[in-house]
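Run log, item B.
One chain of 182 residues. Sequence copied directly from the ordering sheet:
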Amino acid sequence: MERLTERDHKMSDAAYLKCSEECAVPWCDGCSNFERLVDRLAAYEDTGLEPEEIEGPYDNLKAHLFDVEADLKAYQQAEAEGRLQVSPCAPGAVVWALERDRTGAAVDFSGHMFLSQSRGSVIVSSFVYGLEGVRDTLDYLEKDTRLNDYVDLAVFPASDCYLTREEAEAALKKEEADHADL
């Protein structure tokens, strides 16, 4: 912000117009700098706040911005280390995946519960129905791992996963049509 005033170094509670040091306009009559000062003062007064009421929120804002900056640095560090990924949806959401035969041709699609994504692959559970959300599913899978040394998880290429049934169905039909043309 460009300051229009300066504090008087001899009297700490006094201020003067900075332009008055070199001004040729007596008593600021018709001076554009004076009009800018009046406009800025009016804008400040329109807030209805006293100076001390502005300083408190400003200090809180500075503290908040410091927290945001620290969070941003942590996210940047995590990204640099490969620990930060943006998933297509939240864990527990239903995703629709193309199912492929041994030759790699898409033959069907099915719904799964999204659990995670890593290195271009989507990790899902087949348990979409019958369990309440991701917590119940993870509890079930953890118990199943302990008891059976087997977990019903599937991994699909992210490029074969869709957020809606309609998108998966359209992708399957497109791929079938593309193979029919060969």
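Observations after the first pass:
- The chain has two domains: 5-80, 94-180.
- The first strand starts at residue 5 and ends at 7.
Flagged for discussion on Thursday.
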